[in-house]
């Protein structure tokens, strides 16, 4: 078990109907939940949340991943996590693209990665939605502030959602859905490991 897995065990999920679609093998990527649906609320309350929002001391440029999210993980990293080649997919209602990696072509186990391009408030938008979340647990991934947060808790079903602040303006969103494992330890641990690998790819 990795260090991130141990940290991630106490995490949460931000699960919406998109998560269910992912488990059923839907062709569209899971929409990063919360930010777009609560954009006006998050924007108006971001200032109030500002005092609690951690800043990013070493911002990363994720411009390239916004258009090519599958470049977030190298071939060696995919092998490490037991994932196949990624497939770029659209996010309905969102500007950015997502990448989905699967264990195998037949497997329902998957990892989605998205740069949330429509969000320019970074983790402030995530923190602004805190009161409406069932779980909200800040953490740190490779020195970058992150949050496991969700409207419902589906960790025991193998689904976990993680938001990582890569700059004070932008976040990346990772959703793991491990149908075969169905445990928070496995799914949230993989989300943290994938996030750290992506940060390494970006030079963080």
From TrEMBL:
Cross-referenced Pfam families: DUF3558
Signal peptide range equals 1-23
Which key words tag this protein in UniProt?
Signal
Q: Where are the stretches annotated Disordered? A: 32-53
Q: Which PROSITE patterns match?
A: PROKAR_LIPOPROTEIN (PS51257)
Q: Which residues cross the membrane?
A: none
Which stretches are tagged as biased composition: Low complexity? 41-52
Query: Per its UniProt entry, which superkingdom is the organism in?
Result: Bacteria
Specify the protein name: DUF3558 domain-containing protein
Species of the source: Saccharomonospora xinjiangensis XJ-54
